[in-house]
Every structure is written in C-alpha cells, then in structure tokens.
Amino acid sequence: MHDHAVTLSCKGVWKLFGENCEAFLAKKTGIPSQKDVQNAGLIGAVQNASFDIHQGEIFIIMGLSGSGKSTLVRCLTKLIEPSAGSVLFNGEDLLAMPEKELIDVRRHKMGMVFQHFALLPHLTVLDNVAFPLAIQGIKRAQREARALEVIELVGLAGRETYYPRELSGGQQQRVGIARSLAVEPEIWFLDEPFSALDPLIRREMQDEFLRLQNVLHKTIVFITHDFDEAIRLADRIAIMQDGAIVQIGSPEELILKPATNYVAEFTQQIPREKVLTAKSIMTPISAGTLSPSSFNKTVKSETRIQSFAADVVHDTQDIGVVNADGELIGTLTPGKVIDVLVSGNPAL
Amino acid sequence: MLGILLYYFSAQLPEQFAWLIKYPKSWTIPLKYWISDFMKWLIQDLDFGLFTFKEFTRSIAWLLEWPLRFASALLSEGFTFSSDPKAPVLVQRLPWVAVTAIFTLIAYRVNGWKLAILVGSCFLYLAIFGQWESAMVTLSSIVIAVPFGVFIGMLFGILGFRHKNFEMAMMPVLDLMQTVPVFAYLVPVLFLFGFGPVAAMIATMIYATPPMVRLTLLALKQVPAELVEYGRMAGCTNKQLLWKVQIPSARAGLMVGVNQVIMLSLNMVIIASMIGAGGLGYDVLASLRRLAIGAGLEAGVAITLLAIALDRLSQAFVQRDTTSFHPEDVHFLIRHRYLVTAIAGLLIVWIAGHFLPAVNHYPEAMQLTTGEFWSDLVKWLNINYFDQFEAVKTFLLLNFMIPIKRFLLAVPWVVIVAMVALLGYQLGGWRLSVLTALLSLFIAVTGQWQKAMVTIYLCGVSVLFATGIGVPLGMWAALNKKVYRVVKVIIDTLQTLPSFVYLIPVVMLFRVGDFAAMLAIIVYSLAPAVRYTIHGITQVPEDLVEASKAIGCTKLQILRRVQIPIALPEIMLGVNQTIMMALSMLVITALVGTRDLGQEVYIALTKADTGRGIVAGLAVAFIAIIADRLIGAWAKRKKQQLGMEHV
Ligand SMILES: Nc1ncnc2c1ncn2[C@@H]1O[C@H](COP(=O)(O)OP(=O)(O)O)[C@@H](O)[C@H]1O
Ligand SMILES: [Mg+2]
Question: What DSSP string runs through B426-451?
C-alpha cells in the first residue's frame, strides 16, 4: 500500500472544545500535554493527530465511544474547523481553501456515510440518491440515470419510489452508501456506518462493503468502535484513546506488537487465527533454497491462519509457505497452527 | 413567612415611612401620557418627506385589503367586479354545498372517513343553525390571515436561525408580544390602520404570529446535526442547505406552527370583532352585550366547531405519512383522482348555485335554532337553583377570595418587590434578581400597584383551583388508561375553545363579578395543568416504577415517593402554562366586570387611550414574565438535580 500516492494527510491536528481554546493554543509553545488541556478546563476531542492515507487503502479509525473519532473525521472534511494543524487533500491545504473551492471539492471528490443514515425524509430513494447531483445543477434525466445505476449497484433496484421510513435500517444505509457513491468520490468517509444495525445485518453489510471496494478501489476512511469490524475490513487501523492516536498499523502489527496496554487489551479478545497470516508464524528460509514441490501442502504467505487451519491441523508433515511469486519463503509445523488456535498466542 | 413578619413590623412604622407601604401617587411616572403623545406624533406629525407615517400604514392596510376582499367575495359575498358596494353580484360565491364538500373531501384525503365525518358535520352545523353567513365572513379573514402569519413567522424564524444576534434581539420582543394582552395593542392598531376587517386582521396576525416564529426556530434547530452535516458534505451552498435540507426536514415542526397560527387566529375572532372584523365574533360580542345567551352560545359553538374542524385538519396534515405511490398508478388522472373529481364537482355545484338558490344559500325554512332552548334552560336553572348557586358563590367569596384580596392589598409594595428579587436571586442568580426587581418596580412606578395586586389575587386564586383540579386529574389519567381517554377528549376540546366562549355559561349562571371571572379562568387554564402532569408522570422511567413495585411499594407509595418527585419539574412547567393562560383570560374577563389591570386595559380600549392601555398591558406582561422566569428557573434547577437535563 505504501507505494501508492498519499491522498489525505493530516499533520498535528487538534480540536479542543471549550472557551478560549484559541488563546490556549496560542499561548502554548511546543505540544501541550493531556494534563495542560485538562487544567485549562478544555475538552481535547482530538489531540495532535498525524497520519497519511494512501490511495486505494481502507484506513480505519477505531476507538471507544467518546474517544474523538467523529470529531477527527469532521476535521478531515472541515465540517468542523480544527483548532490547530493542517489537512492536505491531494497536496492542497483544505483548511486554507476558500469556501467556493471547498464546496467544489466536497461536491466532486468526497463522499460521506453517516451512522444514523442522514437520509432526507421528504425525498424518495431515487431523489435521495440523486440529491448530491441535483445540488450540482445536473439535469433531471441525467442525474436519475446515474442514481439508478448506483441504486442497482447497492442492490436496491425496485425500491426507487420508496420513502426512507418505509425501508429497514440496512436498506436505509444502502441508500446512504449509494448516495455517497453517486458523485464518484475520490475519498470516501464512513462514520460508524453499520453501528446502528443488528449484528447479522451488520455482517452482511460488511461483506457488501468489501464487495463494493473490490469493484471501486476507493480511498476509504472508515470509523468504528468495533475492533472485530476493524480487523475484518482494514488495511490499516489507527487506534484512538481520549482524543489521541495511540497506534497505527495493520491488524497483524497491532496484535503482534501492541504499543500500549490499552491496545493490547483490545487485541486480547480477538481470535489470533482471524488476523495472523502464515507469514507471521512461519520459520523463514531464504527464498530459492527449497522448492515448493518438496511439500505436500503449501499456503500463500498472506493467507490468514483461519482460512487454512482446518485443512492442516491433522497433518503430520510441515507445510510450505510461498510468496506472491510462488517462491518458497518459509515452513510451518501443524503444531504451531494448533498453538495459535488453542492458546491464542503464537509461540514467537 | 418573611412577608407576614415584615407586614406586621411595618404596621408599627411612623408616618414618614408610609411610602414603604403604599407607593405615593406623586412619585408616579406619567409614562402613559408620554406614550399617548408619541402615538399622536406618529400619526399626525411624522413625515418621511414623500409620504407621512400614516399614509405608510394605511397603504399597508390597502395592500392587505385586496386578498381579503377576494376571499370574502369567494366565500361570502360574491363577485361584483365593481368598486360600488351596491353593484349587482355577477359571479356567485362558492355555494355552501361546495364549501362543505371541499373541506370534507380534504379531510377524507388526509385522514380517512372519520375525520371527514367530523369536519363535514361541523360545516353542516354552520348551515343548519343559521351561522353560515357569519361563519364565512370569519373564515375568509382566517384563510388570508393564516398564510400571511405563517409566511411572516417563518421569515423571522429563519432570520433568527441564520443570525444569532437577530435571534437574541427578537426573543424579548416575542416574549412581550405573547404576554401583553391583545386589548392593549388594539388601540394603536386602530389608529394606524383604521377601523375594519383589515385592522382586525393585522391585530390577529400580531397575536398569532409569535408562536410561528418560535416554532420555526425550534424546528430548524431540531433538524438532526447529521442531516446538516450531510448537506454540507454534499456540497450545498448555505442557501441550498436551508431550502433543500433544513426546511424540508423541519416540515413536521413547521406544520405544528401552522396549526398554532390557525388556532390563535380563531381565538382572536371575537376580540378582533371589536375593531371591525364582523362575522361570528361580532355575533358573540353583540349577544354578550345584550346578554342574549342563546344567540351568543350558538355563535360561540359555531366558532368552536370551525376551530375544531380546522385544528383536526391541520393536525392530520402534521401526522400524515406520505407513502410512496408505486409505478403502476402513475397516470396523472389516477394519481390525482381526488383532485380531479373535486374540481369537476366544484365547478358543477358552483354553476348550479347561480340558478338554484338552495344550493347557494342554505334555505332559511330548514334552519334550526336552539337559542330559545338555552335561554329557557338558563331561566329554569336560575329560578330553581338560584339559592344554591348564590350560596356557593357567597361562601367562596367571603371565606376565600376576599381575605386573600385584602391581604395582598395590605402587604407593603416594598416587601413584595424585595421578595420577588430575593426569590430571583435564589433561583437564578443576580441576573434574574435584577430582572424581576426591575419589572415589579415598573408596575409600582407607573402607578398600577393596587390593580396589579387585584390581578395577582384573581389570577392566583384561579390558578390555585385550576392546579388543585388539574394536577390530580392528570395523575389519575396517567395511571389509568380508561380515564386517560376520557380526559384527553375533554382537554383537547377545552384547548380548541376560543377564550370568550367560556364567558357565556358563567355569566348565564353567576352574572358579572369576580366569581364568574374566576370560574371562566379556571376552566380556560385547566388544560396545561392536566397535560403536563400526564406527561410528567408517564415519562418517569418504567424500570424505576418496576423496581419500586419489586421492593413492595403500594401504588400510592409509588406515586408519592417516586412518580411525583420525578414529575414535579414537569408539573411545575404545567402550572407555569396555567398561569400564562390565566393571565390572558383575565383580561378578557374584564368584560364581566373585574377591577384589575385587565379592566384598565379594556377601559383604555373603549376610550381609545393608547398610553393607558399599553402601560397596563405591559404591567400584565411583566407579571407573566416574572412568574414564567421564576418557575422556569426553579424547574430547570430541579431537573438538573434529578439528572434529567444537562447543565
Ligand atoms: N460540539 C462539542 N462541544 C463540546 N464537546 C464536544 C463536542 N463534540 C464532541 N465533544 C466531545 O468530544 C469528545 C469526542 O467526541 P466524538 O468525536 O463524538 O467521539 P466518538 O465519535 O469517538 O464517539 C467527547 O468527549 C465529546 O463529549
Ligand atoms: Mg461518533
């Protein structure tokens, strides 16, 4: 992922709530600590957030409720003005952008999905999906044709004339998704899009989301408070705690090298086999020393243990691990796989 | 307690401190004369160069006159196409059959046959009981006043929503508009716009618009934050955000405002007839003055039914679900079959009306009247039960009302001002303290202390009774579904009755005076006490009640120890509303001979004395504002203590 261009970059973003927060930041030299903020009687909803989001990746911001996720994503879209820091979208400073240009960026390059769907109650599904196009002044026939396309894409064909309240929660969020995709945005923000849904529906929507992303390859900022959801969907996860980002990494990195106890507590609950790949528990061999054909079974190095465990636990022989080019890069004993399944802790 | 102590203490004061007890006449600021002079200057001298102020206001009246004339031609007089009022009618007005049918059909379309029957019967009553002519005069002013009121209300609401400063400046004005009694501004309206239906309509709009402003603001503020954020993310400009996201999403709240404007406009019908509105209001007023009970009652019922019909219709619009139509019935004629049928029917009936008088005017031979019946009933009641009525009245007057009145009149004004300030300080800090002290000082300084005390006495006694009846009734209804259903119907009806209507029966039975006034006020102001109590009790969390049951509380214990304490702030807000309604009714009871600020305002109206009316009106408003702020502060604090509202 990291070889792709940076789409969105935020540097030292702060958002403080409370009176005189500008004065507080102006007075401080250097980076104020959590303590300073609290002593000043302010709420540090977002504190010194910095990261780059690359083109085509699913970047997940994860944290408990109240940890500042929504505030952060609203800073990234300039729905709220950050107290300090900069946000660059395709290299351009969003915060310095004149109103007109910002509206243009939002109209054509950004899409957003909301936790409670935020559908316009007085419009039908079709009109809701066509709404962002109508705002741009696109002719009715043209925008409705485009709306029908995306409605079809999210599997709601046939419901065009319904009003939001006639739909189930899952269907309403599909409308929300269709609507945000209607303008073919470059970057897609989703603020807890599935949190208001029942667990079964949530899972179905996650699959749907992955299917869409396979087709669309958007750059995605996805917010959730559900670590399960995060590891299912993420390329990278940023973990937030009390307004600060405590660690950013792939699901595997978070599990294998939690930066703080806080992160470790989260990751403890997670079944290892769901996250760890063959690569992370193999005994490496330098590429080319052995041929894959010398093993009965081989697995790809990026495969998650969960997907091949059932297949190998009864074996007695070692399993070969191959990279994307088919070269053998390591070996794996069934015992190690069983270790992961039973103890949840790979013997590293 | 403190008041009583100070009172006895002050009785011992030497002569030179008498001013502490009774506000000296010579200290009175002649504010009312200043206002009257200012008014005179406005009307006679203010000149903008091209036109005078009076020309300006009269031209506004002239502008409003056109739509009003059109509506009145359409509904009641027919079109003459000539400025000569005696010219022959060329195109007839809408026949009674057509008007009834239109409203019934709309009711059916919006909410089904039940509402259709209700609305249809209301209009049939108007025709059968000979109220049609007057009712259409009234209706034509309503159908013009309401859209104007709604438009202006929305305009100011939106401006306040967009500009914080505008909102802050507007709020106190709204407070005053809603608390100053209507009578107080009838005189200036009369001076500025002349006597007649247009002036009446302007007064109606002044009275009916403030809730629309407030409800517009509220509805816009209540649009979910996510929806607004969505609008901005979709790239809406500020204008698009307002018109395409915020206003459509606030539709339900806005419709509540429309409903309020309709109800308040109807409530104004009788008062507006004092400055030339005509119609049903005039009929009631005229009968009330002649003490023609039957005729007054019939016209009063007609206003009520009109109010009920329009209220239920507009409420149905609020609650209506627009359901999707599905592709198979998209053909225009099918989709709009009601509209098409209605228009076709309307045209046929309208044309028929030109040839068949019975279609146009409900035949007089078929009209009924119950006027005789009511007059006889009252006569009979008075002959047979006079002594009983009189006994109740005398008992309450002697043992309850008069002592309270004497007490209030005897307490030194300084003590009351100090107490109000102290209360304000305890409940809401020094800001509230200064506000309440200044407002009560205003009353003393403008020389209205005595009358204000009579006002507080009459209002206080009525509120005491109204809460004494309303709160227990509300509790009973909250705990018992069957009772709830009955109570709800009663409350809904009470709230749709125009305030004047209450005067008719009490005057019939108890004649004029404080007692009759009190009865009318009690009935009029009962509804909020009941409504808020029901709401307060039912919003007590279910698990709390269940937990109390589980530890073995009896029903009565649960009520006393759990439900009432938690519901208390809400109940107090109900009492607050009851006070507001009592004060607004108080002014109207001036018609049945009270001696308070209401009478002062009313006298000012009859003498066309702008200053006197406004000063007394402001005094009434200030009493209302003091009560409102104090109770509001108390309820807010209590709610915070109970953790039901955040700081
Ligand atoms: N407008 C606001 N004013 C004051 N505090 C706020 C505001 N918005 C959010 N906060 C506070 O900022 C913190 C982070 O909130 P939020 O970003 O909504 O968290 P999350 O989305 O992770 O649940 C919370 O403590 C919240 O109370
Ligand atoms: Mg959130």
Answer: HHHHHHHHHHHHHHHHHHHHTT-HHH
If DSSP codes are grouped into helix, strand and coil, which group holds residue A277? strand
| Chain A touched by B230 (CB under 8 Å) | yes
Give start and end residues of each alpha helix (H) in B234-292: 238-240, 247-249, 251-267, 269-272, 279-290
Residue of B617, B590, B446, B449 lying closest to B507 (CA atoms): B590
Q: What is the pTM of this model?
A: 0.82
How far apart, in whole angstroms, are the C-alpha atoms of residue A118 and residue A176?
7
pLDDT attached to residue A72: 96
Per-residue confidence (pLDDT) for residue B642, from 0 to 100 = 76
Single out the residue of A110, A95, A103, A120 nearest to residue A10, CA to CA.
A95
Bridge-based pairing of strands A236-241 and A58-63 is: parallel
What's the whole-number mean pLDDT along residues A62-75? 94
Q: Which atom of ligand 1 is nearest to the CA of A69?
A: 22
| E strand or H helix that includes residue B452 | helix B449-479
Read off the amino acid at residue A242: D
CATH of B63-93+129-321, one of 1.10.510.10, 1.10.3720.10, 1.10.760.10, 3.40.50.620: 1.10.3720.10
pLDDT at B450 over 70: yes
The pLDDT score that the predictor gives to residue B157 is 95
Structure tokens at B588: 């109207």
Mean pLDDT of B578-604: 84
DSSP A89: E
* Substitution candidate for ligand 1 out of A13, A17, A192 with most atoms within 8 A of CB: A17
Per-residue pLDDT tens digits for B111-167: 889 999 999 999 999 988 888 889 999 999 999 999 999 999 999 999 999 999 999
How confident is the model at residue A188, as a pLDDT? 94
The secondary structure of A136-157 as a DSSP string is TT--HHHHHHHHHHHHHHTT-T
pLDDT in tens, B323-343: 555 555 556 666 677 777 778
Architecture of domain A6-271: 3-Layer(aba) Sandwich (3.40)
User: How close B339 gets to chain A, by Cα (Å)?
Assistant: 22
Residue nearest to atom 27 of ligand 1 (CA): A66
The pLDDT score that the predictor gives to residue B6 is 57
Domain B450-642 has CATH 1.10.3720.10: yes
Pick the CATH number of A274-343 from 3.90.25.10, 3.10.580.10, 3.30.70.380, 3.40.190.10: 3.10.580.10
- Six-digit token string for B81: 């196409």
Q: Give the minimum alpha-carbon distance from B328 to chain A in angstroms, rounded to a whole number.
A: 11
CA distances from A263 to A33, A341, B138, B500 (A): 20, 21, 72, 70
Q: Which of B336, B451, B372, B441 has the alpha carbon at shortest distance from B405?
A: B451
Backbone angles phi, psi at B45, to 5 degrees: -115, -25
The answer, for B326 touching chain A at a CB cutoff of 8 Å, is yes
Does the C-beta of A69 come closer than 6 Å to ligand 1?
Answer: yes
* Cα dist from B168 to B151, B155, B215, whole Å: 21, 16, 15
Strand partners, A61: A223, A238
More reliable by pLDDT, A27 or B588? B588
Burial B53-69, CB ≥16 within 10 A → b, else e: bbeebbeebeebeebbb
Domain ranges across chain A: 6-271, 274-343
Q: Is B635 helix (H, G, I), strand (E, B) or coil?
A: helix
Q: Which value does ipTM take for this structure?
A: 0.87
**pLDDT 10s digits, B196-240:** 888 899 999 999 999 899 999 989 998 999 999 999 999 999 999
Answer whether A237's CB lies under 8 Å from A231's CB.
yes
State both tokens at A138. Answer: 């696109």
